[in-house]
Amino acid sequence: MTSRFSSPPSARTPTGLRLRPLAVPALLAASVLAHATLASAQPGAAAAVPAASGAGGAHLASSYRGVRLSEILARARESDAQFAAARATAAAGREKLPQAMAGLLPNVNVVLGARNNRDGSSPYPGALNYDSTSAALSVNQPLFRLANVAGAEQAKVLVQIAERQLVLAEQELYLRVARGYFDVLQAQDDLAAATAQKDALVQQLAQARRSFEVGTVPVTDLNEAQSRHDLAVAQEIAARNEVENKKRVLERIIGGPLPRLARLGAKAEVDVLPDREQDALAAAAPREGHPVVIARMAVDAAEIELRRRGAGHLPTVDIVGALRADNGVNARTGAAGLNGGLNNTTQATLGLELTFPVYQGGAISSRQREGLADLTRAREELTNAERQAQLDASQAMLGVQSGSALTRALSQALRSSETQVRSTQRGLDVGLRSRVDVLNAEQQLFVTRKDLAAARYRTLVSSLQLRAAAGALSEADLRALDALLTD
């Protein structure tokens, strides 16, 4: 005995597949099945893992294990071109210190010369041809050069800036990897929801077509089901394209094909930051955030640079020494002179050299004014960095709090939507609800499931962003998220 709204079991869908009438448990199961199917259908994963026992089965299962966030991070460290460029920049920045220290150390130069000479003005008839050689050694040791002292002090600050910029680049790598990882998972969840929705609407369209053929529903119900089905197909295509786009972003970071990723556990707790820790991180951001620390160091470097340029007005004192040896021909004696006309000279000097910069065309004063303007700019950039750090921390904390609250609310909404679908289906069976009501309930269920997944990922990413704003994000924080992931 069937109700007047049930349809013959032998009816076929528009594609010719033999289907049975859709029950609500089957509808919900289709959603779960599509989600599980999508999670396993990624590059690098087999379509199915055959059952196995013993050690061989354990090895097979481990070979299809989803890759965790920390493993993707390890690959990104080795392959990300942006982080590699940051490492090279830091290595170049470290060289500023030895370059500046060279201004405080002795300068030693050796000059060697060999010449062939032709002297036509010699006192004897004809020209005099002879070879001459020379060797010179010069030493210059700065004793009083305040500009060089300030340059060495400034170089130490610039090296610290280079090191801190590398730490900032590493922290940005953590965020890019985490965002890319969870963007892929969210896109896959969206695709799973779209696929499940489309599968459910295929069943509803088949039911509507069978009911219309036997005259139990009007054509408007069939048209509504067809319209919802066609829209679901388009949404699935868009969701599948979004998955591929998100994968390409993460593949660019790791420099290769993306393996199968582990999924966020259905019951994983995404509230990873207690309220007290959130407040502490938000308060620390304007003081300890990496951009703020870098801007503060830049102010110190600008102050030293201003002193260095001002030292251009001061005298300098150097120890200078030279040793020179020349071998040639004495033009007065010629070839017939003493020692065959050869003339060997050696000269050594040692002393202090005092230099006063009297007038340089106004260049020194202009450089001072330029340095003062640079110092003003650095101070304003520090103020901007502090305000930006405060804003980033506030937005991240708001993202954590709103994401957590939204996750709880949508979890309850999901349970309510599942109940609504079951109730609406029963109402359709007894003639109290229309098929459009069922379609609307199903639509709301899948939208809620999609929004819940997005809220969970947003909470996790916002937690990492809050740590980053305070300069406290580390690799250990990403490793801790591995515990929330499952195969």
Q: Which short descriptors sum up this protein?
A:
elongated; alpha+beta; Outer membrane efflux proteins (OEP); 2 domains; four-stranded antiparallel β-sheet
Spell out the blueprint of helices and strands.
Layout: H1 24-40, H2 54-63, H3 69-79, H4 81-94, H5 96-101, E1 107-119, E2 128-144, H6 146-213, H7 219-254, E3 263-264, H8 275-288, H9 290-310, E4 316-329, E5 342-355, H10 363-429, H11 435-469, H12 475-481, E6 485-486
Antiparallel strand pairs: 1-2, 2-4, 3-6, 4-5
Structure characterization notes:
This protein has 487 residues and is an alpha+beta fold. The chain folds into two domains: 24-43 and 66-96 and 151-303 and 364-486, Outer membrane efflux proteins (OEP), CATH 1.20.1600; 106-143 and 315-356, no CATH class. Helices cover 63% and strands 13% of the residues. The protein contains twelve helices and six strands. The chain has helices at 24-40, 54-63, 69-79, 81-94, 96-101, 146-213, 219-254, 275-288, 290-310, 363-429, 435-469, 475-481; strands at residues 107-119, 128-144, 263-264, 316-329, 342-355, 485-486. The chain has a four-stranded antiparallel β-sheet, with no helix packed on it. α3 crosses α6. The longest helix is centred in the middle third of the chain and has 68 residues, at 146-213. The chain is elongated.
